[in-house]
Amino acid sequence: MNITSTTVIRHGEYHTGNAGYRIEYVVLDSKLTRIQANVYEPMDGEEKYLGVISFENGAVSCSLPVPENCSLKDYFGDFEIIMNKIEAESEGRPGK
User: Is residue 49 part of a domain?
Assistant: First the structure.
């Protein structure tokens, strides 16, 4: 059999002081093509869904309310860290 393409889909979680993130990302033929980070506000043992930040084919988009206790730059700062970690991992440099 001739394998013409390889797709890897991974799921994970990441937590910061700003929010919790449930992450799914796709690597197609060793190239990161998509990240979806569902954003949750921690609340005394429960989580409240806030929205999503996505990266797909070089573009970032989001659907998030403007929070009272956290600015959007905090969520996007977290997302940038998540992207850097995933890119490093997919390039064989874990833990960047």
Answer: yes
